[in-house]
Structure formats: structure tokens, C-alpha cells
Design a protein that fits this description.
globular; 13-stranded mixed β-sheet; alpha/beta; 12 helices; TIM Barrel; binds iron/sulfur cluster
């Protein structure tokens, strides 16, 4: 029987902490969402990282902590941060661009790190390097092989844009040959560099392109024993809309102390929280959480405000479909 995708709602009680420990990076990917004017250029000290890990720890609830950058392996104290996070009860992931600086594989162990995630945007150097930079494909795939060989659980993240949608299906044999067991497909958002480039040429795929390609590739990967997660994006008529900002606990922490609940808000100074003197402080005024409460026919409010092009309307002015929360996923495999 063919594997059937299932929608993964926000698991009540589950918490996700996305911790950007620095914004510096050795690459300059075309779709990078890091925005130094909003997120700063700071590298957090080892002591601050440890204190902020403690600040968000909650041993009563399963909490995923994802270390991000910039490129988090550029931080020499990442291994100590991983250890601190594990001791504090987190399920720990590192999202790397594949360079694994500072000998990460030798300085941490698979029992401390639950997942090591690599970003790859193409099944070959031609596709990947046109987006992520020359030489990146070879380094990233070589380090995936080394990590698997050393016993780390490895996942791969692929950000779909018009530049690599057609190549997505060819990721399946590559992932199988690298023995990667988890595959995350993301969709490019009109944020950061992609928003700037949008005037000339949009990188976003259309609804039809997305629906024609992504679920089928996910099914093929699942047949190879790979667990695939991809965003729902378009809600079916009978599906309920929920905003993760209202029903889930997600924290997107930046080194300048901003803490967002919604990734679509990250280019604007509307973060619901900030960290001040190592304490989490609620921001008052017109912040992102006010938008989460608005109930509109199009589904996600921030999508409607920031990237309304992906909504189509009928003759009566009603939306033809609703856009789901960008944090709502489907899983298969
Ligand atoms: S690797 Fe990540 S942080 Fe670095 S430029 Fe690419 S998208 Fe941005
Ligand atoms: S993406 Fe939309 S639905 Fe999801 S948290 Fe943000 S505003 Fe809410």
C-alpha cells in the first residue's frame, strides 16, 4: 500500500526553541532570511548561551532546542552549548550549512546530539551551488557521510524555490545513498534576500507547482524508508485553521535578545518578547501576538499581510483556499 501523508497538528504541551546563537555565516545563500538590521550581528558569549538555555528549559514538557545561526558551528562553544542543553532536558538539534567548523564531529557525541541537520538545496553541485555557493555541495555531502559514519542521526533540509523545484525528485536517491533517514522540505518565504529580489524575479513556487511536485516526492522518499516532513501550506476546505501563535509554544530567539513566536514576523520589530538581563519580558503594544488573534477568511494573518500574492480569490471576493500556519506540517514515512 502507498504511504499516506498525515497532517501533524501542533502537539499540545510540546515546545520548540529555535536559538540563533550568532548571525555570522561563511555563506551567502540567495534565500537567506537572516536580516542583521533586525537580528543584530552579535555572537553570544558561552555564559549567555548557557543562561538562555536555562531560561527556556522546562523539564515538565518535551522541549526541542534547535541551534541555528548564521552558521552555528562557527561558534567555538557550540559543543558546550549542546552539552548544557542536553543536561537541561532538551531534545537537541543543530542546523548546519554542512561546513561543520571547529571539528564538531570530534567535539560532541551522538548521545548528546539528537539530530544533526544539513541544509542542501539540490541533488547535485549544479543546482545546489547556484543557490548556496560554489563548492558547497561537495563539502556538505562529504560531511553528511562522515557524520553518518560516526553514528550521528542526520537529517537534510531542502528549501524549495523555483530554482530547484524540478530537481527535488532527484534528492530521493541521493538521500538513500547517503543513508539519511529524515528529510525536511521547506518552502521559500518572501522574507530577507528573497523579498528584496522579488521585484525582479520571484523565487516562490505557485500553488499548482507545489501540489504537483512536493507530495509525490515525499511519497517516493517514504517508499525508500525516509521520514519526510513538509509544510501543509494550503488547507483543504474541511480542515480547521489554527495559528501556532495561539495554540503552541514556539520561541525564535535572536542574539540581540528579540524573541518571536512566529517566523513570518522576524523581519519586523513586532517580537512578542525580549530577553532583558537574562529574563524573558513581554513586549507591550502592537506586537505579533495581537495579529494572531485576528480571524480572517484567508487563514494566516501574517501571510495575508506580507505575501498576499499566494492567495487567489473568487468572483465574489472570497479566497479560493486558506493558507495554513507556516508551522503546520505533513509527515509521511
Ligand atoms: S547557510 Fe544559512 S545563515 Fe548562512 S547564508 Fe545560507 S541560509 Fe543564511
Ligand atoms: S505563520 Fe501565521 S498562523 Fe502561523 S504563527 Fe505566524 S501568524 Fe500565526
Amino acid at each position: 500500500m502507498d504511504p499516506i501523508p498525515r497532517t501533524v497538528g501542533f502537539r499540545r504541551g510540546e515546545r520548540n526553541v529555535f536559538f540563533h546563537i550568532l548571525t555570522a555565516c561563511n555563506l551567502s545563500c540567495r534565500h537567506c532570511y537572516i536580516n542583521p538590521s533586525q537580528h543584530g550581528t552579535k555572537t553570544l558569549s558561552r555564559e549567555t548561551i548557557h543562561r538562555w538555555i536555562e531560561l527556556f528549559a522546562d523539564k515538565e514538557k518535551r522541549t526541542n532546542l534547535i541551534f541555528l545561526g548564521g552558521e552555528p558551528t562557527l561558534h567555538p562553544d557550540l559543543p558546550s552549548a549542546i552539552q548544557k542543553a542536553k543536561e537541561s532536558g532538551y531534545f537537541v538539534t543543530v542546523d548546519s550549512n554542512g561546513y561543520l567548523f571547529n571539528d564538531l564531529l570530534d567535539k560532541t557525541t551522538p548521545d548528546l546530539l539528537d539530530y544533526l541537520s544539513f541544509s542542501l538545496d539540490g541533488p547535485d553541485a549544479e543546482t545546489n551551488d547556484a543557490i548556496r555557493g560554489q563548492g558547497v555541495f561537495d563539502i556538505c555531502t562529504a560531511n553528511i557521510a562522515r557524520a553518518v559514519q560516526k553514528g550521528f542521526r542526520v537529517s537534510v533540509i531542502y528549501t524549495v524555490s523555483r530554482k530547484n523545484l524540478e530537481a527535488l525528485a532527484r534528492m530521493v536517491p541521493l538521500l538513500a545513498s547517503l543513508q539519511v533517514k529524515k528529510f525536511f522540505i521547506q518552502v521559500i518565504g518572501l522574507r530577507g534576500n528573497s523579498a528584496l529580489a522579488a521585484g525582479e524575479e520571484t523565487q516562490q513556487v505557485s500553488r499548482e507547482e507545489w501540489l504537483e511536485t512536493v507530495p509525490e516526492v515525499a511519497r517516493q522518499a517514504a517508499e525508500q524508508g525516509i521520514h519526510v516532513t513538509y509544510p501543509k501550506v494550503f488547507l483543504d476546505r474541511d480542515e480547521q485553521f489554527e495559528c501556532a501563535g495561539n495554540v503552541a509554544e514556539n520561541f525564535f530567539i535572536f542574539p540581540n535578545g528579540r524573541v518571536y513566536q512566529c517566523p513570518l514576523c522576524e523581519d519586523h520589530p513586532i517580537n512578542a518578547y525580549r530577553i532583558e538581563n537574562d529574563k524573558l519580558v513581554k513586549n507591550e503594544g502592537l506586537m505579533e501576538d495581537r495579529f494572531f488573534r485576528l480571524n480572517i477568511a484567508e487563514g494566516c494573518v501574517m501571510n495575508k499581510l506580507l505575501q498576499a500574492d499566494n492567495i487567489a480569490y473568487d468572483e465574489g471576493g472570497g479566497p479560493l483556499y486558506r493558507i495554513s500556519c507556516c508551522l503546520l506540517k505533513q509527515e509521511i514515512g
